[in-house]
């Protein structure tokens, strides 16, 4: 993508390495210069002038001749050449020729397109490097250098600087442009700019990023805009079905977007896009018509969606409407079918929490998703390929059957939380169905036998449908079924026919009943599952061994089998390449591990009977490793001291729970290690680790003196199981720590300081905790959670001008905690009073539960932007002050507060019109009726 720092990094590398080469040349902005008349010839001349002779240059007047001269030079000289901003393979070919390079030469290319290398260059050793985003520390450093011209800045600008860096996603281009723009500007201008950035990218940044968008074809642009507006963080599958039916060729087009670093497909097949690119896409759509939403191609903001729907004129431009349930909570919104029918070219429609009246007939519609629709409608699904229905209480067996009639193009049918469905429809009406999901449909009992006629079905999921008692043997007729996912409690036997399906790639058999025996699953040892890629079994009673031949297995997961000699399973020939992931959790019969294939990238083992932890140093491809032994004494376990762990250089996540085994000091050599979880080990050697590079650290037991390492990269720390009564983290160097989670049974006092970046503090299940001490540097604190700390009664502030809370009274001075956003107190029985002092525009959320002695909550009128007030099971609470002045309040939930008498002035003042209140069992409350 544009502006991420490719050219800057290339210049740094060029300057550092140029002294090692005889001749060097840096060709900057090849894309821009080659687009001009004779541009490539001029670039060839520049290259030859720096690696060749001037007399050669005068004779070059056409590209082919220039290629020949360059080829002659490059095969005889050790050179370093940088080709910056290449967007076409022809540019590479014309500038380096086709001749062999001299031994030791290096060509460095920066590009937004991964596929720019000519085919003839594939014979060389090629190393790809994908740019990664800057850390917060370096992003702030770059921004401050531009905004303050390299000088020092006032503390008053700290929070604004961080907010601006966050809003840009750390993109160097945006940081440089905005930093220079704000140089010598007032705080008011900074605040205005920040507000604008939260809405859309800066104009200069927008123009430069749009270069990548403008280079796309029309269909690629449409897919890019769809992802930016609707699908970031969403599974790609359904979007591909829609695009394919619209003739957009998604496989090819998305590959182009990926190769140009405009989008990524990350874990679980989800779309990922940089924040600035997402905002670019939304801004492009917004600029289609700034004033009139119905003249844009896509609409996703609630007010604009409703405005467009209520417009009487026919719209020929809107392709997609998205009214998300997270922003719409009104039962009063009624949409007439004729209003939806005005959008003749609508292909994607998602509506939530409203009433639909009348029949919907849109011939261009390809994807329709309805969530919490309060009145039923008939929808013509002639061209729909994706149909999703969730929490639609009006949907019953007859309506579902009518809905699926004439759906011959339907590819995806997903029903979630549709509790009035008792049987599946007759599937003869939708023969092209490929993906079928029933999730949390509590009354669903029967799977129609016609399911066996779905010859195109590749994915079948039946999850948490607890009334399903048996599965039809017709499932064995699903000749193309690739993924079979079943999670239920009343199915006592799987259909025998399932093991006839040779096309299965994934089998997930999960029983969450919690019963001791779970499902009875019989495996035929003679079956061959040549294409099986994923096998997952949980809480099931395996009555046979796994198939002896599973040739293509990549992921084996067995969780808590009720009864099986699992070690026999492990001895089968299943344990061989290309197996990449093994998860054997709560498999308490495993005593030893067999020889494991070197192809493994993920390994998790948890067993109470494990006798030997083998040397796993041969598993050099491991990225994640979990080894847990519970309920055994250290002298019963043979471990080889874990020194081999230093050879697993690719590890990013490591979790070890081994009784009294010394922490291996080799952990410090694992430079890619990002997350480390240690439990039950001998922590004395942990003190010897230096420069541990992890970002997330979980210590579930540690010495009575807190660790003293330099953990400058640490962003998340969890401490638990310590016998210490007072925890002081002063000895740790934690400049980047953002999350702290403490869970200690004996802890009396927690003292926090020297962590200026700390945003989230949680203390839970520490029943003896009395106080938390906070120093003045905690102006960054956003979330504070105290959960199940029975003795907690005060906060102590280490400042000269702020009074600490007396016993039983919590005082929140917002001048000190000026970034606090969320407060959560659960099971804090000694708190009598909570008082907010000062004014805050950041505080959004208060959650109080089971604070049995709490009597009053005051000062809420100072919280100008509080969105949610949720109070439960506070039997002694009598007064909540200031609720009537909370103009931004969206949710007021009061449950089981039997002593609550008043919310100040509610008898004469109403809550905001948009506030959703839910009050139950507050019998003494005046001014409100108890309601659901």
From TrEMBL:
Residues 1-149 form the NB-ARC domain. GO terms for biological process: defense response. Gene3D superfamilies: Helical domain of apoptotic protease-activating factors (1.10.8.430), P-loop containing nucleotide triphosphate hydrolases (3.40.50.300), Ribonuclease Inhibitor (3.80.10.10). SUPFAM superfamilies: L domain-like (SSF52058), P-loop containing nucleoside triphosphate hydrolases (SSF52540), Winged helix' DNA-binding domain (SSF46785). Keywords: Leucine-rich repeat, Repeat. It comes from the Eukaryota. GO terms for molecular function: ADP binding. Residues 219-286 form the Disease resistance protein Roq1-like winged-helix domain. This is NB-ARC domain-containing protein. It comes from Corymbia citriodora subsp. variegata.
